[in-house]
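Q: How do we represent a protein-ligand complex in a form that can be generated token by token?
A: Start from the inputs.
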Amino acid sequence: MNFQPTYAYAQFLDKEDQLHPFRQRFFFPKHNGKNVLYFTGNSLGLQPYGVEKALRKELKNWREYGVEGHFKGDMPWMHYHKFLQPQSARLVGAKESEVVVANTLTTNLHLLMASFYRPTKERYKIIMEAGAFPSDMYAMETQARWHGFNPDEAVIEVAPREGEETLRTEDILATIAEHGSTVAVVMFSGVNYYTGQFFDLKRITDAAHAVGAFAGFDLAHTAGNLPLHLHDWGVDFACWCSYKYLNSGPGGPSGLFVHEKHGNDPAFLRFAGWWGHDEESRFLMRKGYKPMLGAAGWQLSNAQILSMAAHKVSLDMFDEVGMDALREKSLKLTAYLEFLIENLNEEAGHSHFHIITPKNPEERGAQLSILTGDEGKKLFDYLTENGVIADWREPNVIRVAPVPMYNSFKDCWRLADLLGRFTAA
Ligand SMILES: *Cc1c(COP(=O)(O)O)cnc(C)c1O
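Then emit the structure tokens for the protein with pyridoxal-5'-phosphate bound:
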């Protein structure tokens, strides 16, 4: 693309952008009376305007119906999870029966590992990326311990090569092959939270299957960020949160995916609760667990209506836009920000801002992680003082996420402008 570093050009890109109007449907926090430059949609998405109305509606149902709300209204609570299934399925490329919204992310990761990590003396290893999100590290460490294994031996991390920041797919595949029949589960994130690297889920899944292991993914930074085809890729299980790119509010509910080849097998082991029980006989309150077919059979509790109602508002918006259109804008938006930052480096005559996120657009979504120099923290504080909400990660990385649902090309221009002023000062 032939980008230009001028404000007029950023304005032109916004005019051309069909998704630009969606920005009007979100609340932006204020800084000195003006909208902040919000670049942390990968940590907590902004609040869509429709959420308050949706919550008021359920509060009203509760007020007016009490327990009868389970059966009354246009979206009775009894079936609430079903209203989110078709949209969640489109979001991650699954069949409706393969997904369900329930619980929270780390809880689901453990529940899914309870089903898919059934280690034996011979096959007990978990392969994951080095530098995974801490919750995932702790989950894998304690899963290994829970089954009586030493995590130092059971959890194998794939790390970048000396002098490199991100993983090579060939190294991931080679590690899986090398550990061969000792591998029980390959558990990766879809997009690494720190570097923004998007992994090749299909090839990792194939490699896991080739050694007889399961492949599962934590899609916290991936769902709503990149188009996915979990069913076609043959992924065994996955889970994600809804409060990052999916804008469902702090602590929002998690989605989970179980491929139908496992989910339709009632004998597939799991930790059960009443909401995963066959709905025809759920209220007979009898002994003997009979799971619902599909991912619904991994539900434990009755639905968290208030947080799921907020999630539904956001899912409606994703449906309206579609992941393909969102990705198309995202590719352009991230490339534009990258161009502006590289332009600053060129002007300065050296690499002041070192982007560690892969250059290849196929290997990233809406995030650039910028390795800063000694002045990194000062730069970050300067940005904050000037109305930018970005994310600081020790020791010296600033993460910015140009989110296609509500960030504009002008936002990117303004951010780069501030970066430029800091270096010039
Ligand atoms: C955000 C994130 C989490 C957070 O987990 P919660 O259970 O929702 O607190 C876990 N894993 C990854 C990879 C994340 O990015």
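The longest strand covers residues 183-189. The mean pLDDT is 96.
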